[in-house]
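Q: C-alpha cells for this one, please.
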Amino acid sequence: MKKFILIILSVLTVNFISSQTVYQLKSNHFNNIKNFSGNSAPTFIDLDGDGLLDLIAGRGDGKLDYYEQSSPNSEEFILVTENFNNINVTGESKPIFTDLDGDGLLDLIIGEVNPNLSHYEQISPCSEEFILITENFSDIFIMNNSAPVFTDLNGDRLLDLIIGKRNGKLEHYEQNAENPAEFTLVTENFNNIYEQFKSSPTFTDLDNDGLLDLITGEYNGSLSHYEQSSPNSEEFILVNENFSNIHVGHESSPTFTDLDGDGLLDLIVGEKDGNFNHFEQNEENSAEFNLVNENFDNLYKGNNFAPTFTDLDSDGLFDLIIGKKNGKLEHYEQNGENSTEFNFVTDNFGDIDVGYYSYPAFTDLDNDGLSDLITGEYNGSLSHYEQISPNSEEFILVNENFSNIHVGHESSPNFTDLDGDGLLDLIVGDEYGKLNHYEQNTENSTEFTQVTNNFNNIDLEWTSAPAFTDLDNDGLLDLIIGKNAGNLHHYEQNEENSAEFDSVTENFNDIHNLVSPKPTFIDLDGNGLLDLIIGDRYGNLRHYEAVNFTDIEEYDLNQAPVPFTSYLRNSYPNPFLISDKRNCAVSIEFGVKENEEADIAVYNMKGQLVKEFKGYKPGNHTVRWNLKDKHGKKVKAGIYFYSLRTNKTNTTHKMLIIK
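A: Here is the predicted structure, written as C-alpha cells:
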C-alpha cells in the first residue's frame, strides 16, 4: 500500500516542420531513470577519458546529478550519484566545463541563484573528483540566476564567457591573457539579445559552415537561434525566435552533443519541471531537429508538492490533499486518530485538473456545511469546487475563474479572517513573491473584492506561499511564507484584528535549503503542539513539530494532583465579549481522572461541531479557544455548548459570546 509517513526533522510522436530544423520522438521514457528535483540544466563531458559521455545535471536545490553513458554511442545513461562531489550552491545550479589554463585539468564553473559563479577544478587528469577554488569566480556579479557558457568567438585563443541572466539578457566577458582565471567585462548586453526572462545560452555549429550558432533557452520554454555574422565575429544575427518549433514548458536549458556517434547532433533541453527533452538533428548540417523523447532517460526532476489538511468526511481522521505540478491533486487519509502515518487514497482526487501547479485550500464560504475547495494554478487564476453533500469526498466544479481573480502566475491561496469581522480574507501568493489581499463582499458570499496587490509591502522576489496560524496563542496571527530560495519568512500581526503585519525573521526556525517551500500548520497527533508540514518543488513533505510551550494552543496545569473524578468548569470569561481586547480566547478548565482520556468539543445551537480538542491524559488541563472553528474561521456571536467526553463521563456547559 502506498503511504506517507511523516518523519519529524531535527531542526508528438510529432515532426516539427520548418524551413530549417526538425527532430523526432523515439521514446517517452528514456531509460526509466528518475530523480525528483527541479530546474534541470544538463551539460555533457567525458570526465575520465574512457570514451563514455558523462552527463552532469544542475538541479533546483543547487546540487549536481552525475550520470554516465552505459556504453559507447549508447543513449542509455546510468546514475552514478545524486550529489556530485558534494557540491551544493544556493539553488538552480547551471554547470559548464572547460579548461581555463590548458593544464589538462577540467574547470567546472557553476551558475546559481546567488549573484556569483563558483569555480571547481579537477584534482588530476581523468579524475571524477573536483575541489573548490573559489565561490566568487573572477569577481563576476550577475544579480541572480546565472547560466554560463564558454566559447572562443573571435579565434584569438582566449575564452569568451557568455552568461545568461534572469532579466533575459546576456553578459559577455573575455579571458585575461596573463591570468586565465580572470575575465573582463566586454558588455552587459551581448548583441542586444533579450529573451524576456532567464536566458540560458549554448553554442554549436549546426551546419558546419564555420559560423557559430547560438541557441538560447528562455522562460517560456522555447529556443531562439542566432548565427555569427562572419567567422570570428562577435556579431550575431537572429535566425529564428522559435528554433525547430521546440517548446518544453518553462525555463528551457539547452545543450548539444552527439550521443550515438552517427554524426547527427543530439539536443538535450532541461526545463523547470525537471524533465530532459531529447531532440535529434534530422540530417547532417541541418538546423531541423526531431523530438526523440520528452523525458530523456526518464531523468525526471520535479513534482512541486503543495499540501493542505482537512477532514472531508468528519470521521475524525485528517485528509491530506496535495497539489502537484501536473495540476492534479493527491489524496491521503490519516490511518488512525493522532497518527502521523497517512494511507494513499487516490492520485486524482475529484478528477480535478487545473492544468499546471495546483495549490489547494479548503474553507466553507457560505456556511452551508459543504466544504469549498479553492485551487490556485500556474496561470494565476483560481478554480472553485464544492462538496456535493456533507462528508462527501466528491466535489463539483463551480467556477474556473473564482471571483475573477488573476495574480499573474502560480496563485497560492490561503483563507483567514484578519480583522474578526466575520468576512473571510483571501491572501494569494504569486510568482513574483508578493501577496494579494481580497476580502469577502458579505457574509456567506462567494464574491471577493481586491484590497491590495501588495499586502504589507511584502516582496520575496520570486514565488510566495502563505500560511496563517497563531504560533504562541497570543491572539495575534502569525504569517509564515515559503520563499523560492528555500527559507521561510515570519511576520506577526501588529495588533489583534489588524491587517498590518511586522517582520519577525527571514529565517523561521532556521529552515532552509528547500526550493519553493509550501508550508501548512496542523496538530496531527492531538498533543497540543502544532505540526508544520512543508511541501517543496521536488515532491517532498517535511514534518516539523513545535517543542516550546509558547507554541501550543492548550497548556497543562498538572502541578495539582490527578483528580479523583473527571470534571468540567465554567468557561472564563462568560459571557465573552468579542470587543474586549484584554481577552483573546475563552479558557475552559477541566480535569481527567486516572485511566480515562478526554476530549473537549464545542457545538453551536444547531448541534454542529464547531471545534474539538482531543486526547487529554489524566490530570488538570486548560484549553484556550481562540474562537476559530475547525476551518480556521472566526465564529459569530451567540450561544455555544462545550462538552467534556471520556469513556465514562459526558458533561456539557453553556457559554455566551457577545459583540
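A few notes: Confidence is low (pLDDT under 50) at residues 1-37, 548-560. Residues 417 and 424 are 5 Å apart (CA to CA).
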